Amino acid sequence: MNIARLATAAGLALWAGAAAAHPGHESASFFSGITHPLGGADHLLAMLAVGLYAARQAGRQRWALPASFVLAMLAGAGLGALGIMLPAVEAGIAASVLVLGLLIAFAARLPVAAALPLVAGFALFHGHAHHAEMGEGTLAAYAAGFALATAALHAAGYLVGRWLPQSLWAQRLQRAAGALIAGAGAVFLGA
User: Fold this and answer.
1) pLDDT value at position 150?
2) Which residues form the signal peptide (predicted)?
3) Closest CA to 66 of 116, 113, 127, 25
4) 55-105, pLDDT tens digit by residue?
5) N or C: which end of the chain has fewer CB atoms below 10 A?
6) Which runs of consecutive H residues, i.e. helices, occur in 23-134?
7) CA gyration radius for the chain?
8) How far apart are CA 97 and CA 43, in angstroms?
9) Does 17 have pLDDT greater than 70?
10) Predicted TM-score (pTM) of this structure
11) Degrees to nearest 5, angle at CA 64 with 59 and 65
12) 3-state class (DSSP) for residue 35
């Protein structure tokens, strides 16, 4: 399969996934918490992108970015549980996919003081959406599930990013992946 067909297939799959990104959840459980980030292309791409982005960073950013995302995501769910509403949650999630994809596409290295609040800010939206779609049940088990799934997606993105060699073709491949992620984010935003 050539690269154009692969890109077209991936784009169509992401576009279709955007329409069904958040199916209803009848009951909140550990299992439904695990499946929620995996069932929506927007959450899936953002979380993989955090891992990919972290893999090419230096020092403590490699672990601090994914860790701050998970913690801020839990805080976002907590805000939702307290009845504190965030504005434009779905737009914030879509923007996270777009911006993280662009950071990967341009091989950007933001300073820690900029990268951590950016990633954590996006994570608040993801966590708030997880809570909003929780259904009936306990937040603790559901949150443990989506936190675990998110950490696993970060780890998958990180491992792929670290596995790729520092060769020119691998850098181009990672940048192309970032561009595809950013393109999906633009679709999610309705651009």
Assistant:
1) 97
2) 1-21
3) 116
4) 989 888 899 999 999 999 999 999 999 999 999 999 999 999 999 999 999
5) N
6) 30-39, 41-55, 61-81, 89-105, 112-132
7) 16
8) 8
9) no
10) 0.83
11) 110
12) helix
Query: How many residues can be counted in the chain?
Result: 191
Query: Quick one: tokens of 61?
Result: 């950013």
Place of tokens 């998958």: 156
Tokens of 74: 């839990």
Burial code (b: 16+ CB inside 10 Å, e: under 16) for 29-40 equals: bbebbbbbbebb
Nearest to 104 by CA among 158, 156, 68, 155: 158
Q: DSSP label at 137?
A: E
Among candidate residues 68, 79, 171, the one with its CA nearest the CA of residue 121: 68
Asked whether the beta carbons of 178 and 102 are under 8 A apart, the reply is yes
Q: Which of 96, 67, 79 is nearest to 131 (CA)?
A: 79
Backbone φ and ψ for 20, nearest 5 degrees, come out as -120, 35
Please list, residue by residue across 59-73, b when 16 or more beta carbons sit within 10 angstroms of its beta carbon and e when fewer do: eebbebbbbbbbebb
Residue 191's contacts (CB-CB under 8 Å, 6 or more residues apart) are none
> For tokens 């009848």, what's the residue?
26
Which residue in 10, 18, 64 sits closest to 39, CA to CA? 18
Token couple for 79: 């805000």
Name the 3-class secondary structure at 28.
Answer: strand
Cβ neighbours of 106 (radius 10 Å): 12
Element (H, E) at 8: helix 3-19
